[in-house]
Each structure stands twice: as structure tokens, then as C-alpha cells.
Specification:
32% of the residues lie in helices and 15% in strands. With 185 residues, it is of the alpha/beta class. Strand 4 and strand 5 form a beta hairpin.
Length: 185
């Protein structure tokens, strides 16, 4: 009888605990995305705008954090995966934590430095989302100026990005978690 009672309690408690863990992961992903968005805005304000490549001249299209690359689903865009090949992909940590973008000498021996960087903008680094996938920011949209939203995205529990890369008024697709960085409106 005692064994039956314990088994029954275990069967009832398991879904409750599982739901609590899932909700905690969703809350953490929303908080992380918001924190990354605020940090990126502070970075962009300090350095005068764009995330740039290592030589300091070209703007980047996508910044990614640590973790596995998400899969691409219906409504998603290959740009989230770092494709096509000509797309410039950089590290969120290099821009927001370490300032290791290495803005060395530019052509013609002009010193190019990232003036104004006051980071780190995130103290503890940028780990993967609660499901092990990387956070990403579509900085290409910010580089184009008005009309497009810049967002931080997590692929969510299913690990599949189902949100467009560019647009005005981007809406999270599927179970993606999205934080608005800059409104293109």
C-alpha cells in the first residue's frame, strides 16, 4: 500500500516538475535575449553604430553566441544559419564581452581602433540558450538603417528557427524567443 501511494505521488509530481522546469527555461531565455539586446544597444551607442569585421571596415550581418547552430524551419531564413557564404558572421562575445574584434591597422597604415568601447557589456559571457543553442542577433538589419527590425533570437525548445531574418514588425515564428533590439518602423 505504501509503495502504491509513493508511486501515485511520483506519477502526479513528475508532470508538475517537468512543467515547472520548462517554464523556468522559457523565462531564462526571455531574460537572456533581453539582456543581450540591451547590451548590444549600449555597445552600438558607444562605438557609433555597427558591428564590424576584424579589419574594421565591413559591417557584419549576424552575431552569434556560444552553442549549437539551430535548425531552420518553416518561415525561417537561411541567413540565421550563417548562409549564404558571403554573409559576414561575428561573435557576440567578441563585441560585447572581450572587444577582441582586433581592429588592427587598416590599408594605408591608418590606425583603426574601436573608439568608445566601454565594455564588457555582459559580465558573465554569453552562453547557449537553455536548450543548448546559440543566441543570434541580425545586425545586418541595423546596418541597413531604417525600415528593418534588429532582434535577438533563440530557437526555443524545438531548436528550430521559424522567424524571418529581416523585416519591419518581425513576429516570432513557432516557439522562437525574440527580443527587439531596434525597431525599423
Amino acid at each position: 500500500m505504501v509503495i502504491s501511494a509513493v508511486s501515485l505521488l511520483g506519477a502526479v509530481a513528475k508532470p508538475v516538475v517537468s512543467d515547472y522546469v520548462n517554464q523556468a527555461r522559457l523565462v531564462r531565455a526571455h531574460q537572456d535575449a533581453h539582456t543581450i539586446g540591451v547590451a548590444f544597444l549600449r555597445f552600438a551607442d558607444d562605438v557609433g553604430g555597427q558591428a564590424r569585421t576584424g579589419n574594421g571596415w565591413a559591417t557584419q550581418d549576424l552575431l552569434v553566441g556560444d552553442g549549437e547552430a539551430p535548425a531552420l524551419g518553416v518561415g525561417g531564413d537561411p541567413h540565421w544559419l550563417g548562409a549564404p557564404e558571403e554573409q559576414r558572421v561575428g561573435s557576440l562575445a567578441d563585441h560585447l564581452v572581450t572587444n577582441d574584434v582586433k581592429y588592427g591597422r587598416a590599408p594605408g597604415n591608418l590606425n583603426v581602433v574601436r573608439a568608445g568601447w566601454r565594455g564588457p557589456y555582459i559580465e558573465n559571457g554569453i552562453g547557449p540558450d537553455p536548450w543548448g543553442h546559440r543566441y543570434e542577433v541580425n545586425v545586418k538589419a541595423l546596418a541597413k538603417g531604417g525600415g528593418l527590425d534588429t532582434i535577438v533570437i533563440s530557437a526555443g525548445p524545438n531548436g528550430v528557427i521559424e522567424t524571418a531574418f529581416e523585416g519591419d514588425g518581425l513576429i516570432a515564428g513557432g516557439d522562437d524567443i525574440v527580443a527587439l533590439v531596434s525597431s525599423g518602423g
